[in-house]
Write a structure and sequence with these properties.
The protein is α+β, with helices and mostly antiparallel strands and 667 residues long. It has 19 helices and 33 strands. The structure holds zinc ion (ZN) (2 copies).
Length: 667
C-alpha cells in the first residue's frame, strides 16, 4: 500500500505504483491539467515520475504558482533554445544547459559565432516549437546504449561526459522533444506549451567544464516566465540594474576610480566619494560611541609571527598577499585581518572583570588577494576598510553584546532605506567534531542568537554546518531596491583566538582567578568599499541629503545677483552644509540642468528680488520648484531633512524568491 501525504494534511492511498500525474488526476482533472512537476520528499521531479508501490511519501503538485516549477520550465526552455539553434545552424555540439538565478543558459560549440543579431531568428524558431506543444519524453538507457546514442547524434562532449564525468552511472536518462534528444537528468515540464514568455538575453564565451585549457564554447543566455507581465517586470529590473551599475555611476559622478598603474582591485576614493564615506564614517562613529566602543588605530602590517599565533598564516595563505621579506630575515604580512592587532591591545595590560566588555573599534584597512578575474568595481577588491570592532566579554555577556550589534546594524541599514534584510545564522554541524569550545557553550550562544533575532523581529534562518570551526555567526543579507541580495555585515563569535593555543587571553574574575574571555568580531557594514558600491546602486547615485557630497548649490539668475548669492552660500556653509555656488554667466536653465545631472539634492536660486527681500527660490531635485522663502526657512527645512536622515525616491521591486535558484538538472 502506498500512502501519499499531501500539503493540506490529507492522505491518499493506492494499492499500486502511480505517477505524480496520476495522483494529481485522482485529486481533480483541473489540477492534473495544471501540474507541471512534483516535489516528492523534498525532491523536484517530473509529473511522469513513478512513486514507489508501497510506503509513505510526501508529495506536492507544482503548478505555475510555484517557484520550483519556474526553474523546471526554464530548463525546458533551454532545451527549446538548443533545439532552435540546431535547426538554424549546422554542426552544433551541445555541452551543459542549466538554470541560473534569473534564467538559463546553454553552452554549445558551433562554427557560426552567435551574435545578438541572430536572437530574433532563434526566438522566432523557439516560438514555433513552443506553439506545437510537443511533450518532453523521458527515456532511460543503459550506459553503453547511451554512449551509442550520443555518438550517433554527433555529440562528442556528451559522449566524453558519460565516459568520464558519469563513469559511475549504470543508467542514464535522455529527454526527447520532437527531433531533439538530449542527455539530461531532468526533470522537465510535461510539454512546451507551458513556457509562457521568454527572451534571449546575451551571449558570452565559456569553456567546456569551465576549464580554460579545454574547448571554447558559446554560452547563450535566456530567461523565461509563466506570463508576459512577469517577463516585462524582470526586464525592467535588468534595465534598472544596468542604469545603476556602480562602476559606471562611480566614474560618471566622480566617486571613485581604479587605475591599472595603481593596481587592480585597489580603490581610489575621489573627493565626492570620500566625502560620502566620511559622512558614513561619522554616522557609524557616533553609533559606536553611544554603544560604549573605544577607538583604536593599528598599523597596516604585522610580523608574520603574529599571524602564525592567530593561525591566519599559513591557513589563509591563498587569500593573502605574499609576505614582505626584510634583510634581517624578518617577515611582515600586509594585514589580512584586524583581530590580532586588537587582541594585542587587549593584552597590553592585565584586565579585570569590572572593565568587560572591552569593545575596541577601528575602521581598519585590510588586504586580501583575490584573483584578477574575481575583481569587480567596489564590491570585489583587494584592499578595503572594514567598520571593524572586537568585543572581549564574559560568556554571560554574549547575548547582550549580540543584541547591541544587531540593533546597531538595524539602525544603520534602516537609516539608509535598506529595509529589506534577513539574518543567516551559521551554526555548528551536530554530526561534526571539528569545533573548538564545548558543545554546551555553543548551544547557549546559538540559542541566544535565535532569541535576540526573534525579540528584535528579525527574520533569521539557522543553517547547521555553516559555522566556522571557531564559533557561530550571524550574517546580514541585505536586499537592495532591485531585490538583489548582498551579504554585508557579520557578527562572529570566536572561542579560538582567546584560547591557550592562540593568544591565551585572560581577565581576572571576581574570584581573583584568571578566566578566559569570549571574543566577538563584528562589522555591520562589512567594508566601506563594498557598502558604498551597494549604496551607489541602491540610490542610483542620488544619495540622500544627509550623505550627499554636495547638498546644495546656489544658482544666480544673472551677474547682478552674484554678490547676494555669495552671501547665501556663506550662510549655508556656516550652517554646516556642503554647498557651492554657480555664478557663471550661463542661463539659469542650463545651471539647473547641470545641478540636476550631478544629482544635487537642493538648488537655491537667487535673483534681484531675492536680494531685496532676503529670500531664495528653493528647488528640489525631485519635486522641482518649492517657491520663495527666507534663507533661514530654507536652511531649517534642509536641516530637518538631514537630522531625520530622510531617504527619498528609491526604485522598489519585489525580492526574488530563493527557490528560483534551486534547480540542478545537469548530471
Ligand atoms: Zn536538460
Ligand atoms: Zn576580527
Amino acid at each position: 500500500m502506498l500512502n501519499v501525504h499531501l500539503p493540506d494534511g490529507s492522505v491518499r492511498s493506492f494499492d499500486h505504483s502511480v505517477s505524480v500525474l496520476e495522483v494529481a488526476g485522482d485529486i481533480g482533472p483541473r489540477l492534473a491539467k495544471a501540474a507541471l512537476a512534483g516535489e516528492v520528499d523534498g525532491k523536484v521531479v517530473g509529473v511522469d515520475y513513478k512513486l514507489p508501490a508501497s510506503g509513505d511519501v510526501k508529495l506536492r503538485i507544482l503548478t505555475n504558482k510555484n517557484p520550483e516549477a519556474l526553474a523546471v520550465m526554464r530548463h525546458s526552455c533551454a532545451h527549446v533554445m538548443a533545439r532552435a539553434v540546431m535547426r538554424l545552424f549546422p554542426n552544433v555540439q551541445l555541452a551543459f544547459g542549466p538554470t541560473t538565478g534569473a534564467g538559463f543558459y546553454y553552452d554549445m560549440d558551433l562554427p557560426h559565432a552567435i551574435g545578438e543579431a541572430d536572437f530574433p531568428a532563434i526566438e522566432a524558431e523557439m516560438q514555433r516549437i513552443i506553439q506545437l506543444d510537443e511533450p518532453f519524453e523521458r527515456i532511460e538507457e543503459p550506459r553503453d546504449k547511451a554512449v551509442a546514442i550520443c555518438a550517433d547524434l554527433k555529440q562528442p562532449l556528451k559522449v566524453e561526459h558519460i565516459q568520464e564525468g558519469l563513469a559511475d552511472h549504470q543508467t542514464l536518462s535522455f529527454y526527447r522533444q520532437g527531433e531533439f534528444i538530449d542527455l539530461c537528468r531532468g526533470p522537465h515540464i510535461p510539454s512546451a506549451g507551458a513556457i509562457g514568455a521568454f527572451k534571449l538575453t546575451t551571449v558570452a564565451g565559456a569553456y567546456w567544464k569551465g576549464d580554460a585549457e579545454k574547448q571554447q564554447l558559446q554560452r547563450l543566455y535566456g530567461t523565461a516566465f509563466f506570463s508576459q507581465a512577469d517577463l516585462d517586470a524582470h526586464l525592467k529590473v535588468l534595465e534598472e540594474a544596468k542604469r545603476r551599475d556602480h562602476r559606471v555611476l562611480g566614474k560618471q559622478l566622480e566617486l571613485f576610480s581604479i587605475n591599472p598603474l595603481v593596481g587592480q582591485g585597489l580603490i581610489l576614493w575621489l573627493p565626492k566619494g570620500a566625502t560620502i564615506r566620511g559622512n558614513l564614517e561619522a554616522f557609524v562613529r557616533e553609533e559606536l560611541r553611544l554603544r560604549g566602543y573605544q577607538p583604536v588605530y593599528t598599523p597596516n602590517i604585522g610580523r608574520i609571527e603574529l599571524y602564525k599565533t592567530s593561525g591566519h598564516f599559513p591557513y589563509y595563505k591563498e587569500s593573502q598577499f605574499t609576505p614582505i621579506e626584510l634583510e634581517e630575515n624578518e617577515h611582515y604580512l600586509l594585514k589580512p585581518m584586524n583581530c590580532p592587532h586588537h587582541i594585542m591591545i587587549y593584552k597590553s595590560r592585565p584586565r579585570s572583570y569590572r572593565e568587560l566588555p572591552v569593545r575596541l573599534a577601528e575602521f581598519g584597512t585590510v588586504y586580501r588577494y583575490e584573483k584578477s578575474g574575481e575583481l569587480s568595481g567596489m564590491t570585489r577588491v583587494r584592499g578595503f576598510t572594514q567598520d571593524d570592532a572586537h568585543i572581549f566579554c564574559t560568556e554571560e555577556q554574549v547575548a547582550g553584546e549580540f543584541r547591541s550589534c544587531i540593533e546597531m546594524t538595524q539602525k544603520v541599514l534602516d537609516s539608509l532605506g535598506l529595509k529589506n534584510y534577513r539574518v543567516r545564522l551559521g551554526f555548528r554541524d551536530p554530526m561534526s567534531d571539528k569545533y573548538v569550545g564545548s558543545e554546551e557553550t555553543w548551544h547557549r550562544a546559538q540559542a541566544s542568537l535565535v532569541e535576540v533575532c526573534k525579540s528584535l523581529g528579525m527574520e533569521a534562518q539557522p543553517e547547521p554546518g555553516e559555522a566556522a570551526f571557531y564559533g557561530p555567526k550571524a550574517d546580514f543579507v541585505v536586499a537592495d531596491c532591485l531585490g538583489r541580495e548582498w551579504q554585508l555585515g557579520t557578527v562572529q563569535l570566536d572561542y579560538n583566538l582567546p584560547s591557550t593555543e592562540r593568544f591565551g587571553l585572560e581577565y581576572i574574575g571576581q574570584d581573583n582567578q584568571p578566566h578566559r574571555p569570549v571574543m566577538i568580531h563584528r562589522a555591520p557594514l562589512g567594508s566601506f568599499e563594498r557598502f558604498m558600491g551597494v549604496l551607489i546602486e541602491h540610490f542610483a547615485g542620488a544619495f540622500p541629503l544627509w550623505l550627499a557630497a554636495e547638498q546644495a548649490r546656489v544658482l544666480s539668475v544673472s551677474e547682478k545677483s552674484e554678490e547676494y548669492g555669495k552671501q547665501v552660500l556663506g550662510e549655508l556653509l556656516a550652517a554646516n552644509f556642503r554647498a557651492t555656488g554657480d555664478f557663471r554667466a550661463e542661463k539659469l536653465g542650463s545651471k539647473i540642468r547641470d545641478a540636476q545631472l550631478e544629482l544635487i539634492p537642493y538648488m537655491l536660486v537667487v535673483g534681484p528680488r531675492d536680494a531685496e527681500n532676503g529670500t531664495v527660490s528653493l528647488r528640489d531635485r525631485i519635486d522641482g520648484d518649492l517657491g520663495a522663502m527666507s534663507v533661514a526657512e530654507a536652511i531649517a527645512k534642509l536641516q530637518e531633512e538631514v537630522k531625520t536622515r530622510r531617504v527619498r525616491q528609491t526604485f522598489s521591486a519585489a525580492a526574488p524568491t530563493a527557490a528560483e535558484t534551486a534547480a540542478g538538472e545537469e548530471y
